[in-house]
Amino acid sequence: MSDLTDRLAEGLPPGALAVDPDVTAAYRHDMADFCPAGTPAVVVFPETVEQVRHVMRTATALRVPVVPQGARTGLSGAANAVDGCIVLSMVKMNRILELDPVNRIAVVEPGVVNADLSRAAAASGLAYPPDPSSWESCTIGGNIGTGAGGLCCVKYGVTSEYVLGLDVVLADGRLLSTGRRTAKGVAGYDLTRLLVGSEGTLGVVVRAVLALRPAPAPRLALAAEFPSAATAGAAVCEVMARGFTPSLMELMDAVSVRAVNDLGRMGLPESTQALLLVAFDGPDRVAELDAVGELCRAAGATEVVPAGTRAESELLLEARRQALPALDRLGTTMIDDVAVPCSRLAEMLDGVAAIAERHALTIGVVSHAGDGNTHPIVIFDAADAEQSARAQRSFDEIMALGLELGGTITGEHGVGLLKREWLARELGPVAMDLQRQLKAVFDPLGILNPGKAI
Amino acid sequence: MSDLTDRLAEGLPPGALAVDPDVTAAYRHDMADFCPAGTPAVVVFPETVEQVRHVMRTATALRVPVVPQGARTGLSGAANAVDGCIVLSMVKMNRILELDPVNRIAVVEPGVVNADLSRAAAASGLAYPPDPSSWESCTIGGNIGTGAGGLCCVKYGVTSEYVLGLDVVLADGRLLSTGRRTAKGVAGYDLTRLLVGSEGTLGVVVRAVLALRPAPAPRLALAAEFPSAATAGAAVCEVMARGFTPSLMELMDAVSVRAVNDLGRMGLPESTQALLLVAFDGPDRVAELDAVGELCRAAGATEVVPAGTRAESELLLEARRQALPALDRLGTTMIDDVAVPCSRLAEMLDGVAAIAERHALTIGVVSHAGDGNTHPIVIFDAADAEQSARAQRSFDEIMALGLELGGTITGEHGVGLLKREWLARELGPVAMDLQRQLKAVFDPLGILNPGKAI
Hints:
Radius of gyration of chain A: 22 Å
InterPro entries (chains A, B): FAD-bd_oxidored_4_C, FAD-bd_PCMH, FAD-bd_PCMH-like_sf, FAD-bd_PCMH_sub2, FAD-linked_Oxase-like_C, FAD-linked_OxidoTrans_Type4, Oxid_FAD_bind_N, Vanillyl_alc_oxidase_C-sub2
Largest interface: A-B, 90 and 90 residues
Distance between the termini of chain A: 33 Å
Protein name (chains A, B): FAD-linked oxidase C-terminal domain-containing protein
Cofactor (chains A, B): FAD
CATH class of the largest domain in chain A: Alpha Beta
Largest sheet of chain A: 8 strands, antiparallel
Pfam families (chains A, B): FAD-oxidase_C, FAD_binding_4
Keywords (chains A, B): FAD, Flavoprotein, Oxidoreductase
Number of helices of chain A: 14
Structural class of chain A: alpha+beta
Oligomer: homodimer
CATH architecture of the largest domain in chain A: 2-Layer Sandwich
Number of strands of chain A: 19
């Protein structure tokens, strides 16, 4: 064993440390394709805050980089190893420490799986809204690191709205407590929200106080078929402008609809250019769904299918859930994550279609339409270098288009390695300068997840 | 004119600069009593971003402190002048630049009065929820600086949930743009939320992108009279535990109820120990109000008065609006702002009553009960030094009690000068160290609102 593993082992229980290359290789990267991934020197699985502090103290003493990881379901390479690093896998710190229905909070360790927290909350009549696609496997620590979103955000917002306080181990092993357990609090600068979305570059989350909400009613959904992105986009704008607050509003383009059909089970209309899925979960959901159905027809929908029951609703939404797996079957995929103002959604979709045509590539787009958050999925043959290069160019052009439309290069997936070069284009030199200085305050040696985001 | 005013005048229009001591004296402090206030060298009223940048460049060049101000309705001394400073009054930058119902955002200058934005939003079927008591006069810039709350927060949250992006002039005059115009975005560290609640110590907000919500239905309220803080607190816990989301849930103690009666008009029950006001503004509000009325009776309410109409509701809520003016008539007041977990509210109220008794003082308490955010108002005779000292001790003991109950020293008023010594007690040395370093990143010369908060 090396000096590093010897020193780490001093403060860790047996089995908390893996150096076998066959094991460590499994922890090299998250789910983003085409991001470089190094080889870790060691993977550590701490079970206590004190063990995490020991790891960080050791890393600081030896100047070894540390890459924190959750379930590695991320899509930006933010959890990718660098050569010789300590991978700090938080998956064994997976206890729900408190679940308090009066104060509507949960206190959790970072390795708790999103779905486990959601189910535990539901058992108490509560909900933890953030629901990334990977919710059955992704961890709360990873959600906090990326500032994860999901389908719920049009009504319920993103992870950062639900993080009240954090315990964080700093690069030098000090333990920082931020925020509060109360609904409100303005004592000092908001370090909590500075840490949410920081991709493990400022500290290692070891405990989180999360806000919960009362469980909503079962949602009721409709599907509406549109002849163009423009008509679908107009319907989305109308829904927002008329003051509706759906609990979900997803838009699938023709490519993703056809891909789902090809998967074999859905029987979606082949002729549609855009399929809009809208759900409500409030007390007026039946009336709201009716009204939105009418509004879709008025905006040009060729067909509107409202669900009469909860089961029918979930069946309609299954189309959306199948979109990513269906597109994945068509080739290698690069998933983009560009959010634009809702009113520019149609322009974004038409722009992506033009980029696909220009580069002779298939690009499917699923969107959290109510947030203007599009996920263009560029499909290509990774064995074909020339096609891969075109895919990369399309991916970049999609980000450029998003910025041009007043949007952001990342709505919810984060910067990681994938969009690092684009961050400066969005933020500009003044913000970049401050961000770099903030990083240096938390991590003066630059050992925490080096090379990511900033 | 001094070198300072000469240099300032070079980049400002005539009339944008006041040095007359009679004028500048009016800008010495906000509405917090008992906080030291210095004498500004000059008060500047910029009208453009470029003028603000000129002021900050000049301040940096001459190493002169700058104190940003809005309407000076703050309650923590955060806007108080320091001797020889430039007061930077943002009240003339008061334009609503955009109000966009599709994307549900407003873009505003910092001097826009909260009520003006609320009314403009309402005219478009939208709402800007944060509603501090001073909403008719306080500015959005001040709301952002303090992280202001209000009565709405139990359902709608605080200012920081509504700030999507900021333009900020830094201490050295550079212009920083943070955040986004989109519903979601995770590009880089969340500088926007770091700035919200930073009390003008990190930069000067010159423009804000704010999220709006669809306008709610007119609220329907009830009043419930309780024989003790414990029974009222139990009712509050039940409301939360059963998953209700009132749009307002306020609790007045016996002292504040009697003070409102003494003001002459309300005719509230003199015997009550706690008056709970609950309102709903959702589609189920009639049924919800009924259910909460029942629940209050079951928890021990001696009387429950539901409003049948919107007008009756506003009449009931008038009691709450009169509480602060009514208490102000009884003597000099120090308004505290301690938030505790909802479940500890009754303990907090009983604890405050015990502190009042121990110090032989009158302390009235109004609370945003759904948030656990209490405002104990210590009443005393400022001409009596011994009584003033007891008042100060009570004020401190109230904060200590809040921390003991798992709360925070400030739910929504901020730290300013008033609670500066207490901040370190809440945050601890690690967080304080980081906060000081963050301050130094933004303001290395320490010229921005020196001596406040951190």
